[in-house]
Design a protein that fits this description.
Elements lengths: L2 E7 L4 E7 L4 E5 L6 H13 L3 E6 L11 H8 L3 E3 L4 H5 L1 H7 L12 E2 L5 E4 L2 E7 L8 E5 L4 E5 L2 E2 L2 E2 L9 H12 L7 E4 L5 E2 H7 L5
Parallel strand pairs: 3-4, 4-5, 5-6, 10-13
Antiparallel strand pairs: 1-2, 2-3, 7-8, 8-9, 9-10, 11-12, 13-14
């Protein structure tokens, strides 16, 4: 049974997630932990739930989604997984922060590249990787068919979609990819977004003004 814990963190109110199952193995997706109290909060959660961190995994590498990578990589001695086409965002981590007047430390390169149809495995669980470019060129989402859950990053939000005006973004690519790769999932799939509340595939198919 997959359990998902959401943390709303950093100046951009980004959603970071810890996913774990009955084995206590876990992964951390989109580690945006920035402030000291946010880092303490996730460390406390991991200790209190006796979790074993196995890897850090990202939907994409915009700076608000990587603020906690170096801290957690150092503390838990685990590798960082993301799509190769977002490597340039890692290289520009400090520069990204400067654009928003938010100090950022450098982030070391991605340890392992993942792409379409790869599996992210931990404990008894696995998530299928789906490449959904348009918000960023290397944006991926993580789908658990068994649990009817999707970690969607910044491609799909409650009633909205991700911005496409940053380097490597493209609006038409984003809309096309969402329609062909995300909205085809079962309507009862619960969607965990990179910002804001959760939604479902069915709700977005029926109500999202950008996708109708």
């Amino acid at each position: 049974m997959l359990t998902i814990k959401k943390f709303v963190v950093n100046p951009l109110q980004e959603n970071s997630f810890v996913l774990y199952d009955e084995t206590k193995e876990c992964i951390i997706i989109d580690a945006g932990f920035y402030y000291d109290d946010e880092k303490t909060e996730i460390d406390t959660f991991i200790v209190e739930n006796q979790l074993i961190v196995t890897k850090l995994v990202n939907t994409h590498c915009h700076f608000d989604h990587i603020m906690g990578i170096e801290y957690l990589r150092g503390k838990y001695k685990v590798p960082f997984f993301a799509h190769k086409e977002d490597s340039f965002w890692i290289e520009k981590a400090v520069e990204q922060g400067e654009m928003f007047n938010i100090p950022m430390n450098p982030v070391s390169p991605i340890d392992t590249y993942i792409d379409e149809n790869n599996l992210v495995e931990f404990g008894n669980s696995s998530l299928r990787v789906i490449h959904v470019p348009g918000h960023s060129p290397g944006h991926i989402v993580f789908y658990s068919e068994e649990n009817s859950k999707l970690i969607a990053g910044d491609v799909l939000f409650y009633g909205s979609i991700g911005r496409a005006d940053l380097p490597g973004g493209d609006y038409n690519t984003l809309v096309s990819a969402i329609k062909s790769k995300v909205l085809v999932l079962p309507t009862d799939t619960k969607v965990y977004c990179g910002h804001g509340p959760e939604t479902t595939i069915g709700f977005e198919k029926a109500n999202n003004p950008f996708l109708n």
